[in-house]
Amino acid sequence: MSNIRDDVVWAALNRSRVLFDYNIHNDIHKQFEFRKQVLLSDKSLTKDEKDHAIRFLNETYDREKVRDNSGKRRICENCNQKCFATLFCEYCIRNHLKENFSNWSSGNDNIDNLIQKCQMEAIEPKRIIEYIPYNKLQNIKYLTKGGFSEIYTAIWTDGYYIKWDSKEKQLERLGTQEVILKKLENVENANLSWFEETRSHLSISNKWSRIVECYGITRKPSERNYMLVLNEMEMNLREYLQQNHYQLTWKERIQIIHAPEVITRKQTTKASDIYSVGMLMWEISSGYPPFIDYEHDYYLATKIVNGMRPRIVPGTPLEYRNLMVQCWDADPSKRPDASTLWNKILKIYKLNEPDQLEIHGSFTSKVYQFEIFSEPKNETEEEQKYDDFNKSNIWKNHNASIISNVFKVVNAKLSKILERNLKNDVQNDYKVATMSQHTNEIHNNPNLHSEEQNKLEIPDKIDNIDNI
């Protein structure tokens, strides 16, 4: 039996991350060295636990060095190439995958080429995209309709790759694993736009741990449509907010907002994405879906186009409020770009004195899409007095208690949400509830993220995107 106390190790890993200063430790190498020293000096850990924690830190550091093509290289003892990783060799892994190209096929040359390209860019064992034979999936059950895509649960008998054995020169798998299957509609008959969406999704998941893992693609032999094979998440953002608002600090709420960084990695940004982040910020601050006591119909859409926005929750930190309002400005040109948005969120996250709100609720929302309306405008302060937040009976008994100083860097209480956000890459070792966007999305594109996102609300499920 292991003597490793997982909760203690994880708390120490959290502390090591929260403590470093982005202004001082401004690259992955400085951050790694700082966190390593923090862990080594942590008196709450035994020697074995320190070794355990530092191994996880090394895994993260290896992945980031390979991804960023940065850091000190070493000579691999097997292939003699100069590699960045220390726990594995990225070149050995890629060569191994390349040698296996002839042993599988999806039945579609475009998909085969896409998967092969992803494999030749693999940055670690846990981030390998592959074609998964349908017979490796068992107990397949229909779950829901996500947007226009059918969602299924399944058991993947092999599981994803977790380790490179340098002696045997083989990749080792996790073993039996629960996954989500998302059907890609009309793949054979559609133009290549679906393929570009799929390519972006797989490529980003292949490199960035802040995205819900996509393990690859599968296809039922008797059907024409392919399916994405995704990591199964246990809880969506909305459910988590409803269950945990009494415990969430403002630091932890701000830590939930990850979409801006993901968008930054894509290089191009749509103003509608920034608008949706503003709505997401409001839901995080309140614990409720926006416009919960309105019918989601034409009339609500008209009100929004005419400037109505959710009323700001009392106690919301000023910096957070200002950023949220800027994100949902009616004029897209006045919304921050993705880089600015992420930097401002990071700045707010590092502040020392935001407040904690105690909010709870159990509400769901539906999606309404609009296309043709008059030019959007911003609501006046007078108009905002009469919006849904002010009218809602739900809030009559709402008592928002303010707890100061919970946003300080050294926070004795590290909540589950912070743990999950930082723990995405090792979630199969430390089982925690996480959020996913893949079981009920609201995108226009039936397969993946649409280029034109003109929705009134946020998705019911979003990604975890913080790495350890």
How is this structure best described in words?
- With 468 residues, the chain is an alpha+beta fold.
- It folds into 3 domains: 6-72; 87-231, 2-Layer Sandwich (Phosphorylase Kinase, domain 1); 237-426, Transferase(Phosphotransferase), domain 1.
- The protein has helices spanning 6-19, 28-40, 47-68, 90-99, 109-119, 193-207, 237-244, 250-255, 259-266, 271-286, 298-305, 318-327, 338-350, 381-384, 388-391, 416-422, and strands at 74-75, 82-83, 130-131, 137-146, 149-156, 161-165, 170-173, 177-183, 214-219, 226-231.
- Helix 5 (109-119) runs parallel beside helix 6 (193-207).
- The protein starts with 5 loop residues before the first helix and ends in a 46-residue tail after the last helix.
- Mean pLDDT is 71; it is low at 252-269, 352-374 and 385-468.
- GO terms for molecular function: ATP binding; protein serine/threonine kinase activity.
- It holds the Pfam family PK_Tyr_Ser-Thr.
- Residues 1-363 form the Protein kinase domain.
Main pleated sheet: 6 strands, mixed
User: What name does the CATH topology of the largest domain carry?
Assistant: Transferase(Phosphotransferase), domain 1
Q: Globular, elongated, flat, extended or rod-shaped: what is the shape?
A: globular
Name given to the CATH architecture of the largest domain: Orthogonal Bundle
Give start-end ranges of low-pLDDT stretches.
Answer: 252-269, 352-374, 385-468
The CATH class label of the largest domain is: Mainly Alpha
Cα distance spanning the termini: 26 Å
The run of helices and strands is HHHEEHHEEEEEEHEEHHHHHHHHHH
Structural class: alpha+beta
Q: What percentage of amino acids are in beta strands? A: 5-15%
The DSSP helix count reads 16
Mean pLDDT: 71
The count of strands amounts to 10
Gyration radius, rounded:
23 Å
What is the share of helical residues? 25-40%
Work out the count of structural domains.
3
Spatially, the strands of the biggest sheet line up as: 3-9-10-8-5-4
